[in-house]
Recover the amino acids of this structure.
């Protein structure tokens, strides 16, 4: 089954997979060193920063990367320069970033007091981290669209490798300020962009200005889906801080636990880029049997990944988070069971979401994520402990998203070839640095 999926991967994806693996490893090293270096309160602040950065960063700028990659690839196949796409993509990313920065500045005091124990510097780090991701995702879209996969993988690898080096230095020198551990999220992606800038700089200029319509068509729904998906997977840590600001132990322990149980998500990211083109091709040609076969195989793979990860997490999770991250022993085997169930359901939702996109049903995907977030909110209001509330929210939200997508797919599976064009093959991993 895995060979079938890997056969759909565009040339050069191995390089991207290697960079992605290093970036994933960096996440574990980063949090492990921080967990052993910071107090519970400071690690809690870093955990909240981490969750916000990757919720907003991936949610907003991954769709920009995907659309830039799609349009650059289309123009490249026609012998047209990528410069106009890069120009529009950069303006769009800058606009999204400016809107977020304006909101953050407007509520700076409240954010500092409520989420970072009054430390306004962490809010500044938050802004810098979002800016770094905005630049990184935009340039990755160009590299991906031009099929410069070694450069793409190199940028990911530099980001991850530099994170490991920087946090190692912080740990060895005895730094105990969470601001410095947060600043790594600013420096590393920017350095990756600078060191892989040559092919991007060569793409600047050339050609007539690109109309906005091709870039914006469908982008709004992609951003909605992407943001809601990141809310489901990352909001738990933020919710702990909002529901009980004094419970610093649970916030830090929960992020450490989530990093462990989400290992299957990193594995799935290496298959995600090949899954959508494969599903879209079978849908476009009217190969209903092939569409369902590939979808079942993908669900089988992620189920195996999720169950394997779940067994390890439930059995060893409480010990691992204390050993690797020096996390407080506030989470037990039952907590890890809820998180593992949620991650398995989230994997199902990722696969089913790809199937909806292959059928050009962006609205259906966005609707499913919206229903899931609503279910998450309801579950989070349950009259139980803070930890269980956020665990239930993650689990219920993920299950509802997957179930809604399954119903939408079952009700409107294509009986003949759709009229849309299958998405161009572009490497766009769905997990790029967050847990």
């Amino acid at each position: 089954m895995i060979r079938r999926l890997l056969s759909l991967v565009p040339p050069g994806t191995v390089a991207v997979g290697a960079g992605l693996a290093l970036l994933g490893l960096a996440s574990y090293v980063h949090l492990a060193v921080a967990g052993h270096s910071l107090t519970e309160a400071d690690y809690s602040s870093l955990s909240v920063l981490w969750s916000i950065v990757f919720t907003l960063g991936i949610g907003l700028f991954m769709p920009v990367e995907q659309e830039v990659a799609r349009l650059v690839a289309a123009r490249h196949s026609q012998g047209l320069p990528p410069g106009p796409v890069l120009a529009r993509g950069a303006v769009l990313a800058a606009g999204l970033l400016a809107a977020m920065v304006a909101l953050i500045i407007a509520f700076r005091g409240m954010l500092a007091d409520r989420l970072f124990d009054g430390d306004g510097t962490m809010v500044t780090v938050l802004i810098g981290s979002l800016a770094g991701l905005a630049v990184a995702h935009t340039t990755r879209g160009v590299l991906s669209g031009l099929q410069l996969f070694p450069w793409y993988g190199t940028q990911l690898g530099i980001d991850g490798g530099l994170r490991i080096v920087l946090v190692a230095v912080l740990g060895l020198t005895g730094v105990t300020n969470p601001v410095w551990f947060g600043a790594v999220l600013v420096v590393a992606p920017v350095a990756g962009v600078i060191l892989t800038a040559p092919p991007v700089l060569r793409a600047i200029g050339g050609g007539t200005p690109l109309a906005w319509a091709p870039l914006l068509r469908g982008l709004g729904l992609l951003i909605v889906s992407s943001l809601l998906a990141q809310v489901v997977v990352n909001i738990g840590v933020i919710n702990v801080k909002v529901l009980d600001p004094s419970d610093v132990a649970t916030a830090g322990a929960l992020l450490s636990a989530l990093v462990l149980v989400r290992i299957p998500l990193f594995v799935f990211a290496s298959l995600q880029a090949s899954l959508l083109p494969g599903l879209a091709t079978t849908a476009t040609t009217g190969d209903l049997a092939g569409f369902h076969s590939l979808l079942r195989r993908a669900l089988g793979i992620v189920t195996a990944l999720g169950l394997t990860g779940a067994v390890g997490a439930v059995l060893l999770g409480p010990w691992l988070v204390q050993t690797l991250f020096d996390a407080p022993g506030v989470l037990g085997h039952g907590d890890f069971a809820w998180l593992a169930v949620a991650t398995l359901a989230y994997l199902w939702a990722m696969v089913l979401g790809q199937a909806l996109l292959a059928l050009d049903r962006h609205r259906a995907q966005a609707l499913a994520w919206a229903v899931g977030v609503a279910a998450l909110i309801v579950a989070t209001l349950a009259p139980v402990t803070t930890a269980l509330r956020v665990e239930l929210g993650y689990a219920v939200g993920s299950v509802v998203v997957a179930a809604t997508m399954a119903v939408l797919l079952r009700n409107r599976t294509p009986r003949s070839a759709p009229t849309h064009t299958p998405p161009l093959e572009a490497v766009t991993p769905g997990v790029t640095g967050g847990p």
